Amino acid sequence: MASVAQKLWLLWQTAVSRQTAVSAIPPISPRVLLIIHNPKQHGRKLTQILPWNDPDVLAQAYMQELRAASHGFLNYQIVERLEVDAFPRKEDGFQYDMDTYLFRWRSRTGFHLPDRVDYASLLRQFKIPARVNLDQIDEVWLMAFPYAGYYESVMGGPDAFWCNAPPLGEIGRCNRRFVIMGFNYERGVGEMLESFGHRAESIMAYVYRHKRGEANLWQRFTRHEKTHPGHSECGTVHFAPNSERDYDWGNPRWVRCFCDNWKQFPDLSGPARRVNCQEWGNGDIRAHHLWWLSHLPCVPGQTGGILHNWWAYIADPNLAK
Q: What is the pTM of this model?
């Protein structure tokens, strides 16, 4: 039986092999400000005190996976990296110190509520609106520990809309829209891809918000067996085509599925076939999310005023009019 690594490699090869089909679309390279909160105690970083992942390794793997899943279209570049020897402040002004945080983590009790980070403080501290307005960056990646209080993704800028979190509103005023991603370096690349997947769900739901019935291709893409018996397509981030509940990516039952049509987009007239979790990694979070993301259309053209390259909207929400 193939290992998870082998399955991921096969997904990568499949994505690379499809790049010829989308070669008419020039790749893009969004510029990222990476901010890592990694406080120290006695000269040792939190990621050294606790056996957690290297944030830089996670960021590189995440960029590589998105390049593969987008068939070479999305090539993130980190233009500035800041590592902060501090805990970020919560919305009510609370700030952990190292001893308190380590005790809470090891006992798994008493984490501070409300948990949400103070986004207004972060935006001011790192001059994020100014960097966006000066065209220095396109988005921000926050990386920290569990209970840092980040949203998985959140949007700022003019007419910002729901991006798996309420828009930043007045504190995120800029001359264009931008997304702030929030990652947890105690977890892996699979969880990072999940955060990106929810961002994709939010943005594409907004893009297709005025389309009804069969014209709403986003709603069609997300069909799965539980909502459309016998007519599943690619499902959602939480629901694979055959899932019976949230996160049920390892379900072995076979279902009739039209997922292959999305590789031929915009031609969705192909036949169904039977699929199960063998298609997307037998329950592995990273493999499923790569499979799901790799089915998002990334081809030239448009229908009804909407681009056939959905990755363009997900990477740059300013295109979503």
A: 0.93
